[in-house]
């Protein structure tokens, strides 16, 4: 080893003597020096590190959830469908002002944890911005069976249909007037009332279904045929007249 390299190392030890971990040697030396002080890399070890990193990245990229399109997600990009417009509106506001119990069974990720959950990719993100970026990202589009770089081809019929829809919307705006804040709030309030009414009916139907099941179970117990099959005269005491 040259005296120049030794002088540099001595200066480093002198200036960084207070930091114990600064000059701590790694578990295995991945670099060495030749007789001129030039660094030599262990190509085999660095190749293993690169392979492990690539394996971890591939596991992250190929992870998918229960709602993924397994028939098309593993196809070549040229055979996957082009990107399509989202049919459902993303639920970004339903959890505002609400308290949620968080489950730690799956660690900090999964359906029961806090934040926004994507059932297509089986991932959980902590804020709405990251959730929107994920929904528009390549990984989500691939798990949906789409090619994010392939757009649907436009036809004359499709363009005419879009123009017709735009004209129809403009005519509706002329009749009803432009959308104002008051109208938007009124529409949201009306939709909330409809949803609340539906939930009330749903709860009533669930209670009725439970009562019907309980009544059917009681009738089966009071049935004399089922009692005789089981070897009993009856399941309950009869009233004396």
UniProtKB/TrEMBL annotation:
Keyword Protein biosynthesis in the entry? The reply is: no
Name of protein: Matrin-type domain-containing protein
Residue ranges with Basic and acidic residues bias: 25-35
What is the predominant subcellular site recorded for this chain? Answer: nucleus
**GO cellular component terms attached to this protein's record:** spliceosomal complex; U4/U6 x U5 tri-snRNP complex
Entry keywords, A to Z: Metal-binding, Nucleus, Zinc, Zinc-finger
Q: Name one Pfam family in it.
A: zf-C2H2_jaz
Gene3D superfamilies per record? Classic Zinc Finger
């Amino acid at each position: 080893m040259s005296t120049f390299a030794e002088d540099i190392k001595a200066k480093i030890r002198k200036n960084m003597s207070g930091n114990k971990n600064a000059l701590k040697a790694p578990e295995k030396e991945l670099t060495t020096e030749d007789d001129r002080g030039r660094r030599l890399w262990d190509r085999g070890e660095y190749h293993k590190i690169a392979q492990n990193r690539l394996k971890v990245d591939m596991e992250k990229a190929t992870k998918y959830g229960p709602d993924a399109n397994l028939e098309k997600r593993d196809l070549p990009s040229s055979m996957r469908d082009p990107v399509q417009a989202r049919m459902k509106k993303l639920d970004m506001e339903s959890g505002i002002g609400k308290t949620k119990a968080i489950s730690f069974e799956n660690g900090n990720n999964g359906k029961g944890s806090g934040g926004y959950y994507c059932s297509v990719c089986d991932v959980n993100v902590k804020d709405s911005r990251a959730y929107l970026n994920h929904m528009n990202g390549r990984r989500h589009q691939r798990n949906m069976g789409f090619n994010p770089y392939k757009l649907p081809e436009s036809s004359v019929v499709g363009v005419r249909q879009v123009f017709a829809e735009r004209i129809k919307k403009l005519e509706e705006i002329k009749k009803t007037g432009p959308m104002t804040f008051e109208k938007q709030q009124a529409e949201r309030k009306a939709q909330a009332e409809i949803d609340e009414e539906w939930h009330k009916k749903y709860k009533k139907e669930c209670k009725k279904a439970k009562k019907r099941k309980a009544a059917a179970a009681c009738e089966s117990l009071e049935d004399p045929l089922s009692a005789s099959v089981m070897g009993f005269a009856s399941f309950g005491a009869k009233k004396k007249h």
